[in-house]
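Pilot study result, target chain (688 residues):
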Amino acid sequence: MQVSSLNEVKIYSLSSGRSLPEWLSDRKKRALQKKDVDIRRRIELIQDFEMPTVSTKIKVSRDGQYIMAVGTYKPRVRCFDTYQLSQKFERCLDSEVVTFEILSDDYSKIVFLQCGRFVEFHSQHGHYYRTRIPKFGRDFSYHYPSCDLYFVGASSEVYRLNLEQGRFLNSLQTEASESNVCDINPVHFLFAMGTAEGKVECWDPRTRNRVGLLDCALSSVTADTEIEGLPSISALKFDGALNMAVGTSTGQVLLYDLRSSNPLIVKDHYYGLPIKSIQFQHQLDLIISADSRIIKMWNKDTGKIFTSMEPEHDINDVCLYPNSGMLMTANEAPKMNIYYIPVLGPAPKWCSFLDNLTEELEENPESTVYDDYKFVTRKDLENLGLAHLIGSSLLRAYMHGFFMDIRLYHKAKMMANPFAYEEYRREKIRQKIEETRAQRVQLKKLPKVNKELALKLIEEEGEEQQISKKRKQKNLPSLLKDDRFKVMFENPDFQVDEQSEEFRLLNPLVSKISEKRKRKLKILEELEAQGQEEEEEPEGKASDAESSESSDDEKGWVEEVRKQRKLLRQEEKLKRQERLKEDQQTLLKPQFFEIKEGEEFRSFKDSAKKQKLMKKTLEDRLKLEEKLGTLNVSDTTVGSKQATFKLKKSEQQRKQQEAEKRHRQERKSLRRSASHLKSRRGRGRLFH
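Predicted structure:
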């Protein structure tokens, strides 16, 4: 078992060591184990946990009992039973598997998407059914509420296959030329797909309409990144109802909140390789992203690296065992790697012995190769005068520096700095002097703002330290040293106003306590002005006097509150009298109001009525308008409500309409009189 550590995180590789060929007999395997120490010390967690040539995908069933892996050559799927720590079955397939999905809790229902546009269904006994999709597929997702399979690939369409009806449904038409990955949110079942143009399209499966579009290619380009070509989407994963992580083909991971089109954080792998897999670790709020070369674990809030792993062979897929610290990878090699990281979580129940094993290893640490070597940078070599050794066998290049023998390092350091021991001795003497000074009573440096509050906190901190020493507890952090409350003792806007009404009522005994602190403040300021080095704090009164004072304070608490209230009432009366005097002295000036054009001034009651109307609720206003006739509410045939409003007309418009009405009436009367005259003339001619 190989142990590595990065950022003080122990990573145990359970599949390290040489693997024995399958064709060897058990007798020869036992003989090799006796001869070879490496084979004897290796840990085979699951028997024959490997593929003939390459493993491409690896997944765990929902019940956690079975681990499924696909690979070549020949194309096959292998199922491993974790309770038996061995292989359960193996099935060979006609073509290579692009990806697969376990639909049931165990291995009884599996769907395989194969290279030749085939979709193959397997049940518990074996092969069940096989069909084809119109274009080559690259990924698919299963929508549990509707039993639909969504296939994306080398087409602008998303093919839907309903497993309940057993037929293809109408496909979704997208704007993308090709799609690479897809995923369905486990909470609200939103379907998302990553395109070759670097965009993510989100679809609602209920209405089969697109509800969102994210341009991840544009967001992945930052000031620190160097990108060659257009980034396409290579990985996609939902976390809960609102978070989504997107991996690009240029090695960036973008974390999104679905309510925003801008990413919360952009993490670059700095290898320029496509992101193969993204996993979420909820216990420590980590994101596990992997490309073909490295697996990185980083905090999803800050982006800070937690740890990373670089396997020997290229990575094809990563699988995190649920609720544990176990990680499995599918590689470009026969053996599938298994890693155990105790910080992420406990070992699974089927291999709980790993916890005891790792605890024993941590209690008895073995010296590694790196204990005898020192890591130095190029600048350190120049300071030591050993820059000429670069390229020789004495230095081993590693990352941004070199490894060199620790004995050579100590010799070179002694020659470069012969007075190092004297500096070390002076530093030790200075530390001892500071320790003795810390035991003395020191003067307290108080801040400029809220001095009394700072003194109160120092006194309380001293009392808590004494209590914690007696109870053997850890000391809590002080507010004075906390950066979050630093402004409270620097900015004068945060100064506590002791004369305010709230302060005096909530702190009835603050006057007596503040007097004591003010005395201490005066004494401390005098001592600081004198500049004496060894001064003791001013002692207070005897303990008996202090106890008597505390009892008196408790008895006079009610009286103090009453006094404060009386004082506040008197102050309010004085303020009222002052306001009355000011009002009597001030002369009232006439106020002028401007009336809008087309309106007539009636009285101030109209404005008061308008203000009352504005204060009423919308329901009351609608009822009032319905009574006046300006609103008409009616039911429609569909079952909804229809409201029609009549707009209020201004005075000028009303007068204009009345004039027009009078004009029309006059014209009508003139027409009638003219027609009457014509009829009389016609009758007269007939009589003649």
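One observation from the pilot: The chain has a mean pLDDT of 80. A full batch analysis is planned for the follow-on phase.
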